[in-house]
Design brief:
It is built from 12 helices and 10 strands. The protein has 271 residues and is of the alpha/beta class. The chain has one domain: 2-enoyl-CoA Hydratase, Chain A, domain 1 (Alpha-Beta Complex).
Length: 271
């Protein structure tokens, strides 16, 4: 990974701190905030910066309209549509959880996801790393990894079952279905749905209510919730990484990506 840079040097993430609230917005609107390598790095660095800043008491993560995060930028990651997608993917596999996921989950400040539009693939994962999710009425969520012949990251496998229950999590993970904001509210994936124009105001109001509380107690409260609600991040993260390493080599993964790029229905063979 490239050497960490300061927030003022970010190119894919808008980062701002005021009134003890750090606001992070993915800033690739022309790609519907799809993530390239630089964006993944900056999300990691943003959460690390917020965690290290004693002035920050709460974090809001969102995206520049029209999307929250549409997952991985497949075309850019492949660096050319003729490249073998399994080889392209394998270059990113690490024997550990995704660094951006670890940074988000290890951030000891409360995190609010203000989901302003499509949050699919790793976009849904990013929202799951937050402690609280508020959705725009234009938001959509989808754990679409199965459609690419892959497994979810630690958000879907580790956090989602605790948030919506194991059966509903299994349904979303096994089908890859995309759900709208009202369905997300119904199943408890989000705590509130706001009119799109009011989303950031609602998120800031929530963050302000949190940030007035004693910082040390907030950090311990978050740690307590993490200890009682979830399992071992490193263990499940290592399993995900190893499993993805195998799945990236399958014909079904190549077919899932190629069919997406060619805008056609995939034909999977179990190979």
């Amino acid at each position: 990974m490239a050497a960490r840079i300061a927030p003022e040097e970010f190119t894919c993430l808008l980062y701002d701190v005021r009134d003890h609230i750090a606001t992070m917005k993915i800033n690739r609107p022309d790609r519907r905030n799809a993530l390239n390598r630089r964006a993944y790095d900056e999300i990691e660095w943003g959460f690390r910066a917020a965690a290290a800043d004693p002035e920050v008491r709460c974090v809001i993560v969102s995206g520049v309209d029209p999307a929250f995060c549409s997952g991985e930028d497949v075309k850019e990651m492949m660096t050319g549509e003729q490249r073998d997608v399994s080889v392209a993917s394998l270059t990113r596999v690490r024997p550990e959880p995704t660094p951006a996921a670890v940074a988000a989950l290890e951030c000891d400040k409360p995190v609010i996801a203000a989901v302003n539009g499509a949050a699919v693939g790793w976009g849904t994962e990013l929202s799951l790393f937050a402690d609280i999710r508020i959705a725009s009425d234009q938001a959509k969520f989808g754990e679409i990894f199965i459609k690419r012949g892959l497994v979810s990251d630690v958000g879907g496998l580790w956090r989602l079952p605790a948030i919506v229950g194991p059966a509903k999590a299994a349904e979303l993970l096994f089908t890859g279905d995309i759900i709208d904001a009202q369905e997300a509210l119904r199943i408890g994936l989000v705590s509130e749905v706001a009119p799109h124009a009011q989303l950031m105001d609602r998120a800031l109001a929530m963050a302000t209510r949190i940030a007035v509380n004693p910082p040390l107690a907030l950090r311990y409260m978050k740690e307590g919730l993490r200890r009682t609600s979830y399992g071992d991040l490193r263990e499940i993260g290592s399993w995900v990484s190893g499993t993805l390493g195998r799945l990236f080599q399958t014909e079904d993964h190549r077919e899932g990506v190629k069919s997406f790029l060619e805008k056609r229905a995939p034909v999977f063979t179990g190979k």
